Amino acid sequence: MQVGDPIPLYLQSFDCNIAKYVRVWVRDENNTQITGSPVNLNAIGALGLYGNKTLQFPATPKALTVQYIVYDDPSHTVLSTSEGATSEQWSQGANSQWVKVNT
Amino acid sequence: MKFGSPIPLAFQLFDANTAKYVRVVLRDANDIAIGSPINLTQIGLGLYVDESVNMPSTPWVTAQYVVYDDSGYTIISLSEGAGMNVFLLDGPVALGFTFVTASITAIIENDLFGPPNNGLQDEIVKNSDRTFIIRLVRADNGEPFDLTGVTNIQAKFTNEDGTVLSINLTDGGAPITVVGAATSGKISVAITKGQSGSLMPMNPAPFSLVISIPSGQMVVNLPYQLAVFEEAV
Q1: Predicted confidence band at B53 (pLDDT cuts at 50, 70, 90)?
Q2: Contact B62 A49 (CB under 8 A)
Q3: CA separation, residue B69 to residues B23, B78, B210 (Å)
Q4: Which of B44, B124, B131, B224 is positioned for an S-S bond with B119, CB 3.0–4.6 A?
Q5: Inter-chain CB proximity B206 and A96 less than 8 Å
Q6: What is the per-residue pLDDT across B88-97, written as a single tens digit (0 to 9) for each?
C-alpha cells in the first residue's frame, strides 16, 4: 500500500454480532491522530464483519497504530463487555510502501 | 500478494478442535463478495486451510472466517470465535480500479542529473513551475506503449499534508499532453507553481501514473525517478 491509498480498517466480531458499534483511532508514531481519525466502522454482511476505508495512508509518519474499540451503543459511550478491543500496526518502508507489521 | 497467486487461507482453532466446520467469505476492496463461500479443510490439530482461490485484481481481499458446529453450516459455534485476515495486493493500488494484466514501465526522460544518478531523473522545486517528459514502455517487449485509445492519464504526487495531488490528461489547461504521435508513448506532465508549493519535499518522492483504457486502468509506479526539494533561500 502506498501513500494516498485507503487504509483497510476491518474488525471481525468473534461471535458474529452485527449489533455493535466499532470506532477506530489511527495514530502516528508520536501518538497523534492522523487526519480523519477516529472513524466508525460499518457493518458488512450478516456475520459480524465491520469495515471502513475512508482514511488514507499519510506521507509524513513512518508508523501507524490502529486501535479498534467496540461499543454497545451508537453514541460510543458504553464499552462492550462481550467483544474484545484490538490493535494493529503499520510501518512505512524505504520505498514508501506501507505494510502491516502484525496480523 | 502478487496478482494471481493462491490466497493462503488458514484458521487455527484455539482448542485444536478438529470436529468443527470453518467457512470463509472473501470480499474485494469494495466489500463485494468474491464467488461463493469456501469451506476449509481440517489438516490436523485444528488447523483449517484452503488455497483454491487466486488473488484477484483488487487492492485487498478480506477473508472472514466463521466456525460452525454442523456440516450444513447453519449453527455458528458458540465455543469458537470468528476471525479475519486482510490480504494486500502488491504494488500501488486504488479503489475502483479494474486492473488489466498488460504492464508498462515509465521513464522520466529529462535526465537532469546525468550519470551516476541512482535512477533519479528530475526534480521539482517547491513553488516553481516544472514540466517533464515521460516515456511509457511496454514491459513485455520494450517497445513504446501505444497511447491510442487512452481515455485518461493521471499523474499522482504526494502533498505535504498527506493528501494526493492528481493531475489529469482531461484537466483544463492540458497539464498532461501526448507528445508527438500516440504510438511513441511519450507524454508531457506540467506542474504549476501553485501545485508544487503544496508537495512534500522528498528525495526520492513517490510518484505514479494511472493510465485509463477502455478495458480498465493500469498503475505505473516511478518511485525513484523524481525528487521534490524546498526552494532555495
Answers
A1: confident
A2: yes
A3: 11, 8, 47
A4: B224
A5: yes
A6: 887 544 444 4
Rounded Cα–Cα distance for residues B23 and B39 (Å): 4
User: Which residues 116-135 of B have a C-beta within 8 angstroms of A?
Assistant: none
Q: A12–B86: do the CB atoms touch at under 8 Å?
A: no
Which of A47, A57, A82 to mutate: most B Cβ within 10 Å? Answer: A47
* Range in A19-28, A67-76, B209-218 the model is least confident about: B209-218
Nearest to B82 among A47, A57, A96 (CB): A47
pLDDT at B100 over 50: no
Kindly tell me if the per-residue pLDDT of B175 is higher than 90. Answer: yes
Contact B43/A at CB under 8 A: no
Residue B27 burial (10 A CB sphere; 0-12, 13-18, 19+): buried
Dihedral in degrees, nearest 10, Cα atoms B77, B81, B84, B85: -120
Question: Between these two residues, B166 and B100, which has the higher pLDDT value?
Answer: B166
Report how far apart, in Å, the C-alpha atoms of B207 and of each of A2, A64, A96, B165, B219 are. 10, 22, 10, 10, 11
Q: Is the pLDDT of residue B45 over 50?
A: yes
DSSP H helices, chain B, are 193-196
DSSP state of A78: S
Distance CA A47, CA A15 (A): 8
Q: Using the beta-carbon criterion (under 8 Å), do B93 and A1 form an inter-chain contact?
A: yes
Q: Which residue in the set B85, B162, B221 is minimally distant from A59, CB to CB?
A: B162
Give the pLDDT confidence of A23-41 residue by residue, as tens digits: 999 999 889 999 999 999 9
Residues in chain B, overall count: 233
Q: Under a CB-based contact definition with an 8 Å cutoff, are residues B53 and B35 in contact? A: yes
C-alpha distance from B150 to closest chain A C-alpha (Å): 23
